[in-house]
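Can anyone check this?
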Amino acid sequence: MSERRTVVVTSNVFPGLDAEQEVLAPLNVDLVKRPCLTQEQLIAAGKEAVALLVGNVKIDAGVLSHLPRCLAIVKPSVGVDNIDVDAATAAGICVANVPDYGTDEVATHAMALLLNAVRYVDACSADVRAGRWQPKPPYPIQRSAGRTLGIIGFGRIGQSVARKAAGFDWRLLAWDPYLSGEEIERHGAEPVDFDTLLGLSDFVTLHLPLTEESRGLMDAGALAKMKSTSFLVNTARGPIVDSDALLQAVETGQIAGAAVDVLEEEPPSPSHPLYRSDRILVTAHVAWYSEQAFRDVRVKAVQEVARVLKGKLPRNLLNPDVEPRYAVHGAED
């Protein structure tokens, strides 16, 4: 009988391990949950693991040096900016994510925030609860039809937003430095450069990964290029937007408002500066969530672990140049 192997879940997002156990049951695996908030905890939890299902703890070369048995690190989410993928490649460790579990959910949440910016639903509801019944609200509500939506980042989620927004009679602009103009047009938007998008859009929505190029992309300079009547929506990654610059832009009237589902530090302090403005709506990184997505992300992540334990490559391998620590017998289609 082959030696039992250990797979460790260090993320604390998911209650129980039923979904993971179901996938790994045939593979002679001990599956354990050890929530980690620090690198030291992750090293202690993972030193005997052959695979890790991880959260947001930073995983760098130093951490990887203490994981001698690790074959794969899988993050049950889209963003993997906390993992040094190059260091993992050098160590022979496969890194994978789950890029497609919440596409519809994030796009729908972005649309909800965009429509709230059009109709001020949250403010109107708060007024009613405060005893103010105002059929003619004191907000500058403008007609929705004919407005321009700018989509920054036009991958799966950006394209889903474009499909959903197409029925609202909006002009759709998109900027993505990794896509051709023809491909953007094929998915229903007009390709424009970054500055043009900012200058023409009534609403700007962000749907790009956090990279060195995108970090701080929406800084004071970028916000200054937006219209004074425009709104910014961020359901991507918090550090793409400079929160201090955003607050100043809203408070000075440089832009009309914003809605964000992600922040640079999460969870934020109860006194986070963005809470100062009633023209900035903040939700708690919930855009990814639905009951279906909640299960999909768990199952798809642990299926990647199962593939590695069978000697195959993950379907969503993020470091294709890796020379794995095991003999790869050919990945399935």
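Reply from J.R.: I decoded it. The radius of gyration is 22 Å.
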